[in-house]
Each structure stands twice: as structure tokens, then as C-alpha cells.
Amino acid sequence: MDKLIITAAICGAEVTKEHNPAVPYTVEEIVREAKSAVDAGAAIVHLHVREDDGTPTQSKARFKECIDAIYKACPDVILIPSTGGAVGMSAEERLQPTELPIEMATLDCGTCNFGDEVFENTIPMMRDFGKRMMENNIKPEYECFEMGHLDTIVHMVKKGEAPGAPMHFNFVLGVPGCTSATVGNLVWMVNAIPAGSTWCVTGIGRHEFLLAAPAIAMGGHVRVGFEDNLFIERGVLAKSNGELVAKAVRLAKELGREVATSAEAREILGLKKK
């Protein structure tokens, strides 16, 4: 079994300081949270960026500023910038970070309900995202909120419309309106991925660690962080992303699974640092 890769999703596009005062907005705050996660054991930082007032943005310049600052503090970390952005953004707006020399980026694998909103990812949009990532030698993290998303992207890869093997999936379970966060649903999706693929699970809210435990035992990888969950335990806000990562590390230790460094994660994922 490979070592465990822990990803920290440090801010997302939806949560605010009103939800948890530690949610980062400024470049300095984003670096603080990235470093807290890496120091605690995260090999990957999944990155959204904000304006200083907290407004989500996909600005290429803002991403570059944050990426450069994170690498200065955490030179070995793997960064996965989001191309999901925020609900309502155009495809070209969302694709801006792929114009930078990055190793990985997310690729959302289908339209879905997202609470009271609709998160649009049509197949033509997905083709455009896949083409951009193939052209720029970016490895996608395929974000699947539903089984249909997984089936769709596997079919697209077979047609040469998105980067292929080895594929890396992130199963995002528990978003209101999407597939619920159960172990059964996780097993169902894991059993459907192509041979040789790697996978990670993201449990939303209180499901974060309830799905992290079976993922660790099954040989998968885990994502934690403020984007998905703001609490270290019921009713107690996490003080940092590092505190959430440290809990995942303790869980891995209890289950007898070693945690991967960023260098080891690159080997597991088949990456070469740019």
C-alpha cells in the first residue's frame, strides 16, 4: 500500500471569516494556512485564491502571486490550483491558472446541483479544460461529485479528450444535491476507476473524517481543510488548516499508514516538478 497523501484545501470559494475567523483571504493569510498544513503533514495544497476582501477570483495574476509566495515558504509542496472557481464564473475565467507553469489542476467532471445553485460543467466545457491541460502538460485531479461524472471522464479519456493514465480522482461526497457521503458510495466509486488510478476522498462537513478513516484503510488518499469543513470536532472551530491535517495524521498513525512527503507524493502520482 502506498503512503498516504494528505491534501489541504485551505480556503475554497464559499466559506468566509464569518464562518471561521481563520479562513484566509490575503496572500499573507493564504501562505500562513498553506504552511500550517504542510508543516502538519500535507503533501498537497489545493488552492483557491481570494481578493483581500474575501471575494473569490480566478485572476491569473492573483494565483501567481499566491503560488510564488507559497513556494517561497514551502518549496517542495505540490499545488493543485482550482479551475472550479466559484459558481457562475465563465470557463475562460476559470481556466486562467492553467496559463501558469503548474504541475496539477482540478478538472470538474460534470454539472451538478450545488446546494441551491447549479455548478455548470458541460461536456464541451470539459473538452476545453482537457485540451488546455494536455497542451500545457498539467495533470488533472478529476473531481467527481457523482458516479456519472466518473463514467463521463473515463469515456472522454478513452476518446483522447482529456489527459489519460494514470488518472487521479477526487471523490467529493456530501455536497447538498449530490451523492451522499457514505462508505458504501465511496466503495462503489472506487471500484469503478480504471486500473492503475489513484484516488482521494473529500467528505463535506462532519463527514470529513468519517470518510477519511475508510479511505486510509482502503489505500486511498484524503483531503481535509477549511474549504470542506471548519470544525476540528463537533461545535469546536478549527484554529488552522494545520490542525485539521494533524488530525488526519493522527488517524493514519492509529490505522498503521505512513504519511507521504511531497516528494513521495510526486512519485505516487507520476509527477515531475516544473
Structure description:
- The relative contact order is 0.18.
- Helix content is 36%, strand content 20%.
- The chain is globular and about 45 Å long.
- By secondary structure, it is of the alpha/beta class.
- It is built from 9 helices and 14 strands.
- The mean pLDDT is 96.
- The chain has one domain: Alpha-Beta Barrel (TIM Barrel).
- The strands form 4 sheets. The protein has an 8-stranded parallel beta sheet, with helices on both faces. It has a two-stranded antiparallel sheet with strand order 3-4.
- The longest helix has 14 residues.
Q: How many structural domains are formed by the residues?
A: 1
User: How much β-strand is present in the residues?
Assistant: 15-25%
Spans of at least 5 consecutive residues with low confidence: none
| Total number of beta strands | 14
From the 3D coordinates, which CATH architecture would you assign?
A: Alpha-Beta Barrel
The SSE order reads: EHEEEHEHEEEHEHEHEHEEEHH
Count the helices. How many?
Answer: 9
Distance between the termini: 27 Å
| CATH superfamily annotation | Aldolase class I
Determine the CATH topology: TIM Barrel
Shape type: globular
Helical/strand content category? alpha/beta
Mean pLDDT value: 96
Major sheet: arrangement of strands: 5-2-1-12-11-10-9-6
Helix content: 25-40%
